């Protein structure tokens, strides 16, 4: 499941809206929405994110959060380690191989480390 998919499902369930009802309102197929929720489709288009925000009446910070989650929701990530150290390349490859086996606490710990990095720019 992707971050966007998890949030979309939570919004649907909180408002007791079926996948078929939401799909009809957004003019997409229920299969497509299901694939989005389960992380079997790439990140949604900006237009679809806008439609979701309108459907659920999300504005300001909530709408921006959906845009942010959509950006983070590509299920097949490519990591370019060209020009980085051999250790960085090995780490990226090992993460790709083992990410499915990481427990939630380990993912949270790695995320906390990344959160300490200064902003890019």
Mean pLDDT: 95
Can you count the helices? Answer: 7
CATH class of the largest domain: Mainly Alpha
Rounded Rg: 17 Å
CATH architecture of the largest domain: Orthogonal Bundle
Largest sheet: none
**Total number of domains:** 2
Straight-line N-to-C gap: 30 Å
Strand content: under 5%
- Helices and strands: which structural class? mainly alpha
Order of helices and strands: HHHHHHH
- What's the name of the CATH homologous superfamily of the largest domain? lambda repressor-like DNA-binding domains
Low-confidence stretches: none
> Percent range for helical residues?
55-70%
CATH topology of the largest domain: 434 Repressor (Amino-terminal Domain)
Using DSSP, what is the number of strands?
A: 0
What best-fitting shape do the alpha-carbon axes yield? elongated
Based on the model shown, name its key terms.
121 residues, mainly alpha, 434 Repressor (Amino-terminal Domain), 2 domains, elongated
Task: Report on the architecture of this protein.
The protein is mostly helical and 121 residues long. It has 2 domains: 69 residues, Orthogonal Bundle (434 Repressor (Amino-terminal Domain)), CATH 1.10.260.40; 44 residues, no CATH class. The chain is 64% helix and 0% strand. The chain is built from 7 helices and no strands. Helix 1 packs across helix 5 and helix 4 packs antiparallel against helix 5. The radius of gyration is 17 Å and the shape is elongated. The two termini are 30 Å apart.
């Amino acid at each position: 499941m992707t971050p966007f998919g998890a949030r979309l499902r939570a919004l649907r369930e909180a408002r007791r809206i079926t996948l078929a009802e939401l799909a009809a309102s957004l003019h997409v197929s229920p299969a497509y929405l299901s694939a989005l929720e389960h992380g079997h489709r790439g990140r949604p288009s900006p237009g679809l994110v806008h439609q979701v925000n309108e459907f659920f009446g999300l504005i300001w910070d909530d709408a921006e959060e959906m845009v942010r989650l959509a950006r983070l929701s590509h299920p097949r990530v490519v990591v370019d380690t060209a020009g980085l150290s051999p250790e960085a390349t090995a780490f990226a490859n090992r993460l790709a191989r083992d990410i499915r086996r990481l427990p939630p606490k380990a993912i949270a710990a790695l995320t906390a480390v990344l959160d300490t990095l200064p902003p890019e720019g």
